[in-house]
């Protein structure tokens, strides 16, 4: 199956009590893990990469790996660009075969943010590519971008409505108390705010920084209107820990297939939990 634009799935999710899991990948093994698990569990998934991963692997390698996976298993996979503030990279990804992009101008003054996003929306619409925007600012660290607590800004329903209307985006990432990276304490999600935003905005909503959030809170966020759940750190750490463990137990071995294989196994375990948590097991057969 060719890579899909995820928008129809997200719209379906917003009418139902499930969400589409979006997994950040960094290596071929992670792409394989996501595709194998998704096929096994008959679940639609979004595979996403940050600009940092593109600098590491290159657009063409990522696209061809993900396309190969979608064809091999004949399942719907969307390929999404996560948190990109560079117009040229967004366009390169669209040309390269991505089916969804997030343009993140949340560090810019409002009017500049709107202009950047609108410019992307114009091109993306013509190419049938979904565009995710962000208003408010999600805290924590992703790629090289850190947002400290002082600059973190929870999204207000009013600005969510205005931003969605001003830009024409297809989905909206909102800040309701989650953060990127590893949490120091237990994150508290502002569900009241989420419900108010959902009432004001007519596009699917996206939860960033879902790694490390208690399962009950993620479930509740899905019930209250989140349609895409981004998972990055919860894959990265188990993969690395599995490889570290492998070397601790086998300090003399040096076969990348062995240690990356251990990493892949660890990733697949987490994927299974997350796909269940999002409520999409068997969705492809429903
Ligand atoms: Zn994010």
Radius of gyration: 18 Å
Low-confidence stretches: none
In N-to-C order, the SSE pattern is HEHEHHEHEHEEEHEEHEHEHH
How many discrete structural domains?
1
- CATH class placement: Alpha Beta
What's the number of extended β-strand segments? 11
Number of helices: 11
> Which structural class fits the helix and strand makeup?
alpha/beta
Range of strand content: 15-25%
Shape: globular
> What ligands can be seen in this structure?
zinc ion
**What is the terminal-to-terminal distance?**
18 Å
Strand order of the largest sheet: 1-2-3-4-5-8-10-11
CATH fold-type name:
TIM Barrel
Instruction: Bin the helical content.
Output: 40-55%
Main beta sheet: strand number and arrangement? 8 strands, parallel, barrel
CATH architecture identity: Alpha-Beta Barrel
Q: What integer is the average pLDDT?
A: 95
Q: CATH H level: which superfamily?
A: Aldolase class I
């Amino acid at each position: 199956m060719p890579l899909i634009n995820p928008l129809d799935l997200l719209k379906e999710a917003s009418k139902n009590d499930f969400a589409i899991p979006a997994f950040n990948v960094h290596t071929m093994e992670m792409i394989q893990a996501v595709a194998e698990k998704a096929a096994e569990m008959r679940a639609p998934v979004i595979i996403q990469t940050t600009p940092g991963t593109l600098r590491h692997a290159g657009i063409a390698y990522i696209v061809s790996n993900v396309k190969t996976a979608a064809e091999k298993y004949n399942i719907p996979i969307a390929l999404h660009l996560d948190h990109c503030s560079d117009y040229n990279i967004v366009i390169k990804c669209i040309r390269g075969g991505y089916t969804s992009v997030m343009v993140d101008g949340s560090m810019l003054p409002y009017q500049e943010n709107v202009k950047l996003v609108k410019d992307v929306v114009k091109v993306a619409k013509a190419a049938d590519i979904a565009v995710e925007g962000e208003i408010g600012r999600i805290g924590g660290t992703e790629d090289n971008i850190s947002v400290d607590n002082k600059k973190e800004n929870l999204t207000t329903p009013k600005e969510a409505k205005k931003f969605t209307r001003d830009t024409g985006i297809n989905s909206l990432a909102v800040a309701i108390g989650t953060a990127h990276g590893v949490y120091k304490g237990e994150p508290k999600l502002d569900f009241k705010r989420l419900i108010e935003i959902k009432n004001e905005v007519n596009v699917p909503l996206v939860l960033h920084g879902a790694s490390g959030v208690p399962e009950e809170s993620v479930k509740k966020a899905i019930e209250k209107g989140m349609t895409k759940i981004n998972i990055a750190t919860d894959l990265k750490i188990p993969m690395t820990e599995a490889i570290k463990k492998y070397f601790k137990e086998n300090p003399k071995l040096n076969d990348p297939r062995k240690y990356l294989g251990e990493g892949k196994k660890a990733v697949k375990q987490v994927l299974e939990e997350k796909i269940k948590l999002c409520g999409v097991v068997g969705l492809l057969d429903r």
